[in-house]
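To: structure desk
From: M.T.
Subject: fold request, one chain
Message: Could you run this one when you get a chance? Sequence is below, nothing fancy, just the single chain.
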Amino acid sequence: MTTTDTPRHVIVVHNRYRSEQPSGEDRVVDQETALLRRAGYRVTLFERRSDDIAAMSVPAKFVVPLRVPYNRAARTDLERVLRAERPDVVHIHSTFPLISPSVVDACTATGTPVVATLHNYSLICPVGSMYRDGKVCTDCAGGLPLPAVRHGCYRGSRLASIPVAAGTAFNRRRLLEGVDRFFCISGAQRETLVGLGVPGERLAVKHNFVEEPATRRDGPGEHVLFVGRLTEEKGVRTLLQAWDLVPEAVRRRFPLVVVGSGPMQPDVERWAAGRSDVRVLGLQPTQQCAELTAQAVTVVAPSVWQEAFGLVVVEALAAGVPPVASATGAFTELVDEGTTGLLHAPGDPAGLAARIAEIVDPARNADMGHAARARYERDFSPAAGLAALLAGYDAATGAHAPVGTRAVGDALPDSVGR
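Reply: Done. Structure tokens follow.
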């Protein structure tokens, strides 16, 4: 699918998240769609929106969980579109909860090459995070995802976890047999999946890219910034404990700005109440987040789970701001320790506090900021993103097996194919 005089056609399949829960996946889809269109490609969106659930009738709402494992209506709708449009490739992002992996069958039935971006670990973990009770969890990776139901991993409810776990169990083989190429968004994610038994032949690493920011840092920065979901796995508790250990002179000069919402927001607001060295802003528009990033001396990303990527880290690099991130998941490949930013041990408040105090040194911070920007231009710019995206499409269409000839499942490990 290299660029030609004739625009190629991509159908993008995505279930958008709820508005009150802003998602990096939604942003990636929007940015990739705009990137392809600027490059002359035709892009058709096959979308469902989780916001629409609120307006459904009671019977329709009741049916939603039943269709999480397999939504026959969505499959039929996409197959109709594929037969009418005849695209070159289908690119699947999120299918939960209103689409389901049933759409892979539509691609198989029409002989359409298909790629899928793995934005998280949902291929082996029903909730996608591989994180439970304060630690990394791989209990569902080796077989039937019954532990997810037993522990109520989805929304803390065993009942709500049943359709999600059923979807994982029912669709692993379907995805592994029907998808021509998976995009892992980091080498760390790919390594984790292969280590847990997922065949690596179709797992390609394609980092997310970030659009050129409207503003970049000009000067030393004014604050320490956290942007993200206010949850345990994002390291929010570690951050609160660490901030109290940061030298007072640093906290007075560079107050902590917290942007985001989530289950821990009340805890954060109580902790910050009456403090002059902390500002809790809640959810902010994308443009405001970009401006806050450009004004930061550093962006902190203290996650304690296996981050598959880390848009906030790359957005910091793009703005010329060196991040401080935990040495977990993709962060170790996004941040060049001591060059473009600093790393700390996950869940270590003292280590995080020490790294924050270290990174605000003016001369070193400026040098790392320049290196951060150079890393962005090389690896995470729109040009780099387009090249990687088209290379993946080319690989998928070149390796695509005709209808009726796929036999990948015969070679899948039993632990993955169940």
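Reply (cont.): The domain at 223-379 is CATH 3.40.50.2000 (Rossmann fold). Let me know if you need anything else for the meeting.
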